[in-house]
Specification:
Protocatechuate 4,5-dioxygenase, Chain B; 37% helix; 295 residues; single chain; globular; 11 strands; 3-stranded antiparallel beta sheet; 2 domains
């Protein structure tokens, strides 16, 4: 999003104050101000260890490469496993802070900042698009490590507006899936939507030995979800807890890291292809499997 577009978008609130100009009309003006864009792909990224943000490993390198090969977005909407709320919220500040929501890591990681601008205007547009649930504006969160640890390698200049959508943890998979479906128009406005979590995430069972061990239940869950995604079997995915039982519980003792994928799959359109990358496990119980839809 260039300076001219940002200035146009910044006029949203002023437009809404013009006599005869409704908020809906102002939102329409914002949508028209975004430059024409080819339909953006959608990503689910297994972010794993926060150190992936700065370590020169395979995951970091894959994110760097993706930032160079994807169509350049005008804005980025991130659905991160690390923002859990009661109700669904969207960040609406102009300058989101970098949140270091972890402990026990080197100072170098805590020193990292991702000073990307936010987008109150796109937050307002997102609220307008989602009619399935009431979306609340938030001006206190920022960018947590589920977002910035991935974007730091992808877009190190931090010059693309970034905003986040929270996860209402008490809602079932279908709730998150339906909201994802209603975000689709953003893709045609140059917005790159990223779900950031992990397909398997059980920190209680992490193997610190550094070997190549993978638990059977972890591999089973990862394999079954991959099969369903490849087949476009979203009904089974939404009913995964009943179908996979204890395997599902072991793969996600808490399912915060799985919830972002329901938004991503809700965004998938008929006949859109899915490609996988980073199809490895880390520390036996974390799947780094990631996917891209529509590219």
């Amino acid at each position: 999003m260039n300076r001219r577009t940002l200035l146009k978008a910044g006029g949203l609130l002023a437009l809404a104050q013009i006599p005869g100009m409704s908020t809906l009309s102002a939102l329409g003006a914002l949508g028209n101000s975004l430059e024409p864009s080819e339909r953006m792909p959608v990503l689910f990224i297994g972010h794993g260890n926060p150190m992936n943000a700065i370590e020169d490993n395979a995951y970091h390198k894959s994110w760097q490469a993706m930032g160079k090969t994807l169509p350049r977005p005008q804005a980025i909407l991130s659905v991160s496993a690390h923002w859990l709320t009661t109700g669904t919220k969207v960040t609406a500040m102009s300058h989101p802070k970098t949140i270091h929501d972890f402990g026990g890591f080197p100072k170098k990681l805590f020193d990292q900042q991702y000073p990307a601008p936010g987008s109150p205007e796109l937050a307002a547009l997102t609220k307008e698009l989602v009619t399935y649930s009431h979306i609340q504006s938030d001006d206190s969160w920022g960018l947590d490590h589920g977002t910035w640890s991935v974007l730091l390698p992808m877009y190190p200049a931090a010059d693309i507006p970034v905003y986040q959508l929270s996860l209402d943890y008490d809602r079932p998979p279908a709730y998150h899936y339906e909201i994802g479906k209603q975000l689709n128009k953003l893709r045609d406005k140059g917005v790159l939507i990223i779900g950031s979590g992990n397909l398997v995430h059980n920190l209680r069972e992490v193997d610190w030995s550094g070997g190549n061990k993978v638990y059977d239940w972890a591999r089973e869950f990862d394999s079954k979800f991959t099969e369903w995604i490849e087949k476009g079997d979203h009904a089974s995915i939404l009913n995964y807890q009943k179908i996979l039982g204890n395997t599902a519980t072991m793969a996600h003792p808490s399912y915060d890291h799985l919830l972002p994928i329901f938004y991503v799959l809700g965004l998938q359109q008929k006949n859109e292809k899915v490609s996988f990358f980073n199809e490895q496990f880390d520390m036996a119980s974390i799947s780094m499997r990631s996917l891209i839809i529509g590219n």
